[in-house]
């Protein structure tokens, strides 16, 4: 019976260790129409992805520009009659991300205010937030700093689930068999 229980516990533990990749979806927004803000928005997903993958190698990242390109490509394939349902499923699973990164840039004179937050999409709560000020000369270094701030805050959460083998060692402990104690005579009298 003991061995059966150990086998069941081992099977449950092993099945729970096979985790899928954690998905991040990045959305960028330029709050002003200057070409520099659009350039910064285009640079953020690349720089943020580099930092995040260094901190969490299990993540899969998709940004809004990539999603738009996938949808455009699939629409063209469907119009030409060569589309597949598998591609549509890939697009749908791409949107079903675990975490949302929202990046916003506002131009304030010659400087740029950059704000980003990370939200857990399943719990609908913001779990990390960072901001930075930059000029057109140092915006990449400020994006990297902002990305590192968010990645450091994400270390408090289980972003990468455990993946790998589990070894359980069970040692049986022999117990000495105790002999039953002799019963003591009861000398209590009972009234009639």
Brief sketch in words of this structure:
By secondary structure, this protein is an alpha/beta fold. The protein contains 5 helices and 5 strands, in the order αβαβααβββα.
Provide the succession of SSEs.
Answer: HEHEHHEEEH
The fold-level CATH name of the domain at 21-154 is Rossmann fold
The CATH homologous superfamily of the domain at 21-154: TolB, N-terminal domain
Tally of strands: 5
Structural class of the secondary structure composition? alpha/beta
Mean pLDDT: 78
Question: If classified by CATH, what would the architecture of the domain at 21-154 be?
Answer: 3-Layer(aba) Sandwich
Oligomer: single chain
- Across the major sheet, the strand order is 2-1-3-4-5
What is the radius of gyration computed over CA atoms, rounded to a whole number of angstroms? 29 Å
Indicate the CATH class of the domain at 21-154: Alpha Beta
Characterize the biggest β-sheet: 5 strands, mixed
What are the low-pLDDT stretches, counting only 5+ consecutive residues below 50? 8-18
Inertia-based shape? elongated
Count of DSSP helices? 5
The percentage of residues in β strands lies in 15-25%
- The proportion of residues forming helix, as a percent range, comes to 40-55%
Q: What distance separates the N and C termini?
A: 51 Å
């Amino acid at each position: 019976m003991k061995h059966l229980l150990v086998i069941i516990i081992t099977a449950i533990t092993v099945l729970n260790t096979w985790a899928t990749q954690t998905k991040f979806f990045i959305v960028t927004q330029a709050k002003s129409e200057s070409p520099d803000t659009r350039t910064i928005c285009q640079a953020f997903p690349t720089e943020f992805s580099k930092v995040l993958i260094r901190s969490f190698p299990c993540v899969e990242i998709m940004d809004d520009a990539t999603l738009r390109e996938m949808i455009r490509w699939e629409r063209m394939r469907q119009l030409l009659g060569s589309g597949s349902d598998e591609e549509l499923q890939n697009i749908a699973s791409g949107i079903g991300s675990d975490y949302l990164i929202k990046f916003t840039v506002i131009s304030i004179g010659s400087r740029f205010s950059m704000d980003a937050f990370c939200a857990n999409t399943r719990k609908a709560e913001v779990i990390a937030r960072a901001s930075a000020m930059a000029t057109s000369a140092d915006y990449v270094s400020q994006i990297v700093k902002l990305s590192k701030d968010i990645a450091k805050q994400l270390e408090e959460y289980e972003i990468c689930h455990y993946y790998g083998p589990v070894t359980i060692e069970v040692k049986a402990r022999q117990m000495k068999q105790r002999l039953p104690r002799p019963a003591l005579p009861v000398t209590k009298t009972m009234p009639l």
